[in-house]
Amino acid sequence: MGPVHLKITNNSGYSLLITNNQAGDIGGCHDGESFDYDFDSTFTNNTNAIRFYDPATPGNFINVSGASWSEGGSGFDPGWQSPFIICANGNYNGVNFSADKIGWVELQPWNLMQDGGNVTINFTKGQKDLQSQTNYW
Description:
globular; five-stranded mixed β-sheet; Thaumatin; 1 helix; six-stranded antiparallel β-sheet; disordered C terminus; mainly beta
């Protein structure tokens, strides 16, 4: 598998920490910031836990999303949220996805990332969170 560039833009209202299944904690960012990481070709099966927290209480994670890719499959999981407070969209090598409800998002074709490429994920506030801020909920 070729190298992969991961870019995360965080507008979720929370801070986040990314943990890779092979490299461990690779970094993170606060709300309003972005994070970039380059995986070399030795990373053939990537699973990244993206853990969200209030910066006032680090280590107290409120949600865990997952971004995964390999030569044989790719997808995104927004995590188990109730209420749904963090949405995501983005693309893996130009194949777009949107995650605004609970459930794994499978990306096709199955070998989408076999030559490496780019993964872009944008986190935003969930609809319930936006509505509660405007007193419509």
